[in-house]
Structure formats: structure tokens, C-alpha cells
Amino acid sequence: MTTWYDEAFRPGSEIKGKWNGRVYVVERLLGAGSNGIVALVRRGSARFALKAGYETVDHQSEINSLLAISLKDNSFKNFLIDADDMIVQGKGISFYVMRYIEGVTLSDFIHKRGQDWIYVIGSNLLRKLTEIHKSGYVFGDLKAENMIVSNYGDVDLIDFGGVTSKGRAIKQLTEVYDRGFWSMGERVAEESYDLFSFAILLLKSLDHRKRFTGFIKTLPQNRELDHLTAIMKENPVAAQLAPFLNKALHGEFRTSEEASIYWRKLLAGKKVAYSTLKLPWLKICFAASLFICGATIYVFWG
């Protein structure tokens, strides 16, 4: 059966804002979730990600929260490009346009680059969460599918449907990342809620045995943190992070800023070998230093 978005998001079709009048040409679909559909679009030579919502009220709430975050002086500044309505089959559909970021999934990045990259990725993700939290919001539905990773472990969040004002009930979640699923806290928008999801995200990305699929099928009374502790013990990288992960799972961090400080101190104390990471810029810097050194010697002795 053909849906409204099959027509609206057909490659080559145009999306015109009802109020602002801006026109976007669809290149391809990027994905569809429970609360909307996202497409790669272009306007002139610039490319953006455009998200159209299924429910106008929920989508407008998402736009409002994203606008509030993007107005702050942080990495989300000017993240929101446009917000408008499109007319499809005589019906108004709310949409917003945001920056488009090239990247890959967390699992693909880890598979290609190695698990040691989780130290850099985790640090960058904590920074993103801290910026959202300082804006008065909680991300809510933090999971691997809602983020992408680019070349040097940079992290971008790509689905803001779960963003919730602090103190309110979490409006969108994914069970295995949810502390309520593990009976470890309420589904309230607190910084500790995101930090619990953050710990699950890391453990899930490091678990070679793919046990989280099985956890979803277990009865509530059989969901124990011992299952997660087993992953920490079996995986060398997770074992390094165990002190942090345990605190995050038990809600012992008051803020994400506090968690970030602990993360940095933990890795410094463990003397994590960042030199093992395959960073091309290290080779570039080394080559550049040799060139400068050679040039200096030439000038001095020439």
C-alpha cells in the first residue's frame, strides 16, 4: 500500500515549505522511525537532513526542544536550519531541516577501527549529553541507532524524538536502554537517565556475544545487573571502564558534567594507550615534524 511519504519523499521530488517558501529536493530516504521519516535533501548545492513527523503535536514539541538546544553556544548551535509545513495529498505535514552529517553507525565504526575507539567516542558523547542537559533537556531515547560516528570518533545525535524537558516523564524510549526495564529507576527525565542509557550503549557495543537481544525476551524478575557485570568481566575494554559503568548504572552521578570529569580521570589513571588507535593525523603530524626539523637544520647549516 502506498503511503503519503512514498509520494512526498520520492527521489527527485520537491518539498516546499508552506510558510517560509523554501524548496528542498529529495535525494534519498535516510530512515523511518516510530515518530517520523528522515530524508537527505538539497537546496542549491547544500545538503541537509529533513525530518517529517507523523503526529503534529509531538513533532512540534521536538522542534521546540531542538530549537532551544540549538540556540545555545555549543556544538548544536545553528543545528536547526528550518521548520515549516508541507502539503501532501491536501494535508499539512510538519517538518524541520537540520544539518546533515556524514558518518557510520557505532557498530560499523567499532568493527572497522577496533574497540579501543570507545574511549574517544564515549568522551565525545558525554560532551554532547552535557550540552543537552545544560540546555534544560534530557535526550531520552539514547541508543546506537540514534547516533552516528565520523572519522576521528566524533559523535552526532540524529534523532531528537525522545528529547524531554527535565523533570517530565520520558516520552520515547527503547526498552533495553531504559533503566525502568532493568528496575533501576523511574522513567523521569533526569541526567542520570541518559547516563544509564549511555552505559548500556557502551556495553552493547562491546558485547561480542550479542546477549542484549536475549535480554529483551527475559521476564522482569530475571533481569539482573549481574548479566551486565559479566560483560564487563569478559571484555578487556569494558573492564577498564567498569568503575564508571557501575556508577552510571546505579545512578551515582548527579550530572553528566560530573560523569565526564570522572571518565577523564579514570582513563588518565588507567593510562589508556591512545597511541594504539589508528589515527592518520598522527602520521601526518609526525611527517610534518620531520619536515620542519629538516628545514630548520637546512636553514641553520645552509
UniProtKB/TrEMBL annotation:
The keyword Transferase applies. It comes from the Bacteria. InterPro entries: Kinase-like_dom_sf (IPR011009), Prot_kinase_dom (IPR000719), Protein_kinase_ATP_BS (IPR017441). Residues 24-282 form the Protein kinase domain. Gene3D superfamilies: Transferase(Phosphotransferase) domain 1. Keywords: ATP-binding, Kinase, Membrane, Nucleotide-binding, Serine/threonine-protein kinase, Transferase, Transmembrane, Transmembrane helix. ATP binds at K51. One of its GO terms (molecular function) is ATP binding. The chain crosses the membrane at residues 281-301. GO terms for cellular component: cytoplasm. The keyword Transferase applies. This is Serine/threonine protein kinase. It comes from Paenibacillus pectinilyticus.
